[in-house]
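Morning!

This is the sequence you dropped in the shared folder:
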Amino acid sequence: MRLDRIGFMLNKLVTDLRSKGAFVPISSDLTSSRLQYYYLMFGQDLSKLNRLIAGFDEKGIPVNTSYVDVEGGGTHYYPISIGQVALSIYHAWIDSGKKEKLKHFLQIADWFVDNRQEDIVGTYWLTEVPKPEYHVHDPWKSAFAQSRALSVLLRAWQETNNQSYLEVATGALTPFSLDIADGGVAIRRTNAEVFYEEYVADEPTRVLDGHFFSLFGLFDYIRAVDSNHPGQELAHQLFEDGVNGLVEALPKYDLGYWVRFNRCDIPGYPTFDPCTINYLQLVTVQLDVLFRITKQEVFRDYQAKFLGYLNWRNITRMYSNKFKALKDLNRI
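The structure's back. Tokens below.
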């Protein structure tokens, strides 16, 4: 076991334990057509947004450091984090009214316009850093990245009335309609629930929070765009598919004492990989948000059930299994 990896994971453990009992509030406005605050208000502390964010480049675009199991290190552009920081800056613009915050936000929105890929499967963004645990070594797509782009571009469109932002956002819907085997960012196949993939690999990875965030980006489109726009029907269908898929999938994440991080079909991946404390808290907030949007009681029921797992007996049991999963993945 490498000492740098052990130290990294121990630091994550300490941070995770300190997070027990505290998390972020939910926006009070989840349904109006005017997009303001995002669903989870992370504030301006970059370390809380993502501990791998290293700062900004000369154009104000956030860059990430590489994860501990990525050889070579260095910094890179990570679309999920870029969108996350953009939304945080947008919060600051709404709170303060300071024009420099809006300018910075629009610079990041322009990054999504300038760095998009477009082909037969629609508009998408690629992440170039490898994900060794999923056997991903080439640039990869992500439904979570699509979601962040949707949320950023739609807010930029509402602030500026620049139609190019809306056009790019509309193109970003299409990859949700395609299975990963066909170049999309979804699991859409016989005898499997629809699931939006945070990490697109050769086989399904099904990371739970990434699916939630994907739904939130799709719902932003439903909220913001006029009902007569040609993208509305597709956005509604994609959101409905994803909600139905989540209802079917949730029992498969329930370990009876804790929650799975993912349901991964990659050969050699651990049978189950339990999530961390912080992650479980995040999922319970996401369940609350989705209940408020859809009014489906199943989401409130699972939120209460998962919150009930937060006790020291279950936490100790979870970390025993988490350590084994990390060791099997060669991450410690």
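Headline: The chain has one domain: 3-13+24-328.

More detail when I'm at my desk.
O.
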